[in-house]
Amino acid sequence: MKQKILIAGAGLGGLTAALALIRRGHEVHVFEQAQALGEVGAGLQLSANATRIFADLGVAQALRERASEPAGKEVRLWNTGQTWKLFDLGAESIAQYGHPYYTMYRPDLHQVLVDAVTSAQPGAIVLGARCEGFESTSTGTSTGVALQLAGGRRIEGDLLVGADGVHSRIRAQLFGGDAPAFSGCLAWRGVIPAQRLPERLRRPVATNWIGPGGHVIHYPLRRGELVNFVGIVERGDWTQESWTTAGTVAECAGDFAGWHEDVQTLIRSIETPYKWALMQREPMSRWSVGRVTLLGDACHPTLPFLAQGAAMAIEDGAMLARCIDAGAADVERALVRYEQARTERTSRIVRGSSENARRFHNPALASVEGAVAYVDKEWSEARIRERYDWLFDYKVDQVALPAA
Q: What's the whole-model pTM score?
């Protein structure tokens, strides 16, 4: 049975779900409140658990043309620059997990998905359509759901997916308002044209600087043309959860005073750094009610310390399509199976991200001697495999579905 599926939100998760569902023959309509398509200018990491999904959806080549493929990951000490190799990527990711590890400019990935969705089903994405709420519908023996848009427009379908982000209106109607807690951390981000940087900071590696009370991550984007910068610092005076608040280079540099000159060089090369407060939310145990479910940040927002936020939403989209296809005769049960298939993994990622915050900012990193002992322990090969293998080796197309 093919369904008419309504998706609120044209972010990465909503578009992945749309493409996966269209590929399986369903009619999909994606409603996006923005008047023009686009994503916030930031970088993201796509490990093999995500890139295998895009290969299955037929967009692997389009991704490859826009992505960077780092050769590996490394840790550097905040003040001395001492370096520890974490693990190889590149060919090693393909050899071990079957698919590449990419770092990508978020707008580039978003455009790949937009192009694929509109090619597969022209007109599937509706812009300027702000979702206000929903209601159940019933006509004779047929039941469904109606999405209410700003301006009074009402769209009926067989099921609704709330992929409308951390401040989801769909989640609020299903379960009420959430109660985020400030993590105590402020995040800075910026995207730097690579030509502004010295060669040592343009190497094809993902680098994580760790120190007491903060850490910095940088990696290449768009075939090495850009470098992504993210700096996290423990600060209690900024609690605005927005990706679009501009700060100043001077303020950002001040937050990392005393850090290695390479970190300061990165900061000075950012034209406009943006800052946002990192909020923590407990994982949700329930995502679905009737013919309505949630996806991505709408149901499992996470701190960005395992680099799996985008990957989780992408996995959700693929698993949702799989469960609907496997049980389309009973939509409500299909959505429950989707939720059951995803909650344990996503909750583990959310909690693991919080643990990494403490690991990256440990007080032992204040001295060289303490840092060496701490890094040797926490980033040993065995501990690295314990933290990452289960993430990268996940195969959303092969894991067993919950019982029907």
A: 0.95
